[in-house]
Amino acid sequence: MSKINAFLEEWTPYLWEALIETFQMVSISLIISVLIGLPLGVLLVLTRPGKSLDNKYLLGFLNVIINIIRSVPFIILLFFILPFTKFIVGTTIGVQGVIVPLVVFTAPYIARLMENSLLEVDRGVLEAYEAMGIKTKDIIWNVMVREAKPSIILGLTIATIGLIGATAMAGLVGAGGLGDLAYRFGHLRYEPSVMYVTVAILIILVQGLQSIGNFAAAKLKKD
């Protein structure tokens, strides 16, 4: 018991700081990624053949860009766009320095998830609203997004969990957070107890988020 108390006394401040940094990275990156990914997902749907903005060239271009970015593992993308990150935010370290690669990595993923969710909406429902002469923009936000909410929530849950994993890898470039703590102290300084605790915290975060996402999606389906 004394060893546990000693560990908590020594490492609790570091763990709290790392946890806060992880929350900052995930929340800021997720908000920006949703602001980019959701409209992009809508555009992917509307530019498909037979849709209101049918444009095979734009659709093809977007598909290629999204597929290229999604093909690159985050750790490689992180280092590859360091000059771009430096240009945008002026630094490549700390929470601020990892937001750009996290958004570049997550936004296309969210766009693809949103596209799949919106395509699940019953075509008959859309045709009924189109027959009433309702504008495309109103159908998008008031019908498609509303009908796809449960699927969108589950998609965002998956994206958030992936984002947490990416922030852990971002610790390799001194981004802070739980990944940085586990790498610097747990691995480089041979403190296995720190590694075990950070892994346990990450597992709890992921399990908690997945449970919340499942509950929210199930509730929206009932409503």
Concise structural overview:
With 223 residues, this protein is mainly alpha-helical. It has 10 helices and no strands. The model has no long low-confidence stretch (mean pLDDT 84).
Describe the structure.
It contains ten helices and no strands. It has 223 residues and is an all-alpha fold. It has a single domain, classed as MetI-like (MetI-like fold). Helix 1 packs across helix 5 and helix 6 packs antiparallel against helix 7. The termini are far apart. The model has no long low-confidence stretch (mean pLDDT 84).
Oligomer: single chain
Average the pLDDT over all residues and give the rounded result: 84
Extended strand count: 0
Rounded radius of gyration (Å): 21 Å
Overall shape: it is: elongated
Q: What is the count of structural domains?
A: 1
The CATH topology annotation reads as MetI-like fold
> H/E order of the elements?
HHHHHHHHHH
Q: What is the H level of CATH, i.e. the homologous superfamily?
A: MetI-like
Low-confidence stretches: none
In CATH, what is the class? Mainly Alpha
Q: Which structural category fits the helices and strands?
A: mainly alpha
Determine the fraction of residues in helical runs and give it as a percent range: over 70%
Summarize the helices and strands and which ones pair or pack.
Elements (H helix, E strand, L loop, with lengths): L1 H45 L9 H16 L2 H7 L1 H8 L4 H26 L3 H9 L4 H12 L1 H21 L7 H12 L3 H31 L1
Helix pairs in contact: 1-5, 1-8, 1-9, 2-5, 4-5, 5-8, 6-7, 8-10, 9-10
